[in-house]
Amino acid sequence: MNGSNSGTTDSASGTSRRSDATRGAILTAARERFAADGYERATIRAIAKDANIDPSMVMRYYGNKEGLFAAAVAIDLRMPDVGGAVSRRQDVGRVLVTHFLDTWEDNEVLTALLRVGVTNQAGAERMQGIFRDQLLPIARHVCPDPEQVPARAALVASQLLGLALTRYVLRIPSAVGLAREEVVAWVGPTVQRYLTAGSP
Predict the structure, then answer these.
(1) According to the model, what pLDDT value does residue 105 have?
(2) Which listed residue, 84, 104, 135, 152, has the most CB atoms within 10 A of its CB?
(3) Within its chain, how far is the Cα of 3 from the centroid?
(4) What are the residues whose beta carbons fall under 8 Å from the beta carbon of 80, sequence distance 6 or more?
């Protein structure tokens, strides 16, 4: 009895690992294909070929291209905790810019999403949702006027997305050539002003 149960458990565990590996291969291929071709031109068949699996497997796990795209660009920006000490709050601009540089440079998914977002409505809506849901709590915490939170968060998003577009997608040489410390020194105070300065 015990041996039989153990064998069943091992089999289920092996199946789960294979399933996870398949999902991972699909998502990796999808991110690369969406980044290279955009949402409209990327196809389930091409993504399946890149992942070296049958297209039916993609459909089995994600249903359709829209479902696959949503899974491929599900992103937790892992925003830093800006609560607590006043000195931390006063330094939120530098902290956020540093965090985003780390995130963009280590996460090809964000770059892929930005490329899709500038040409496709689904990508744009996905990017809007990510920034709305994850930037707004920070803005609420540090903004002096609660009624201005959405506008201030939008201004921060415009600054960060503009930086990402020029540095990682368009790769404008002068933007790419800036050292991280220079980017933080230039952009940090602007983000800080958007979030914490008095109304103009």
Answers:
(1) 84
(2) 152
(3) 45
(4) 95, 96, 99
Query: 2-72 belongs to which CATH class?
Result: mainly alpha
Write down the residue that tokens 């049958």 correspond to: 54
Residues 171 and 175: their CA atoms lie apart, in Å, by 7
Between CA 157 and CA 163 the distance in angstroms is 10
Confidence at residue 72, expressed as pLDDT on a 0 to 100 scale: 86
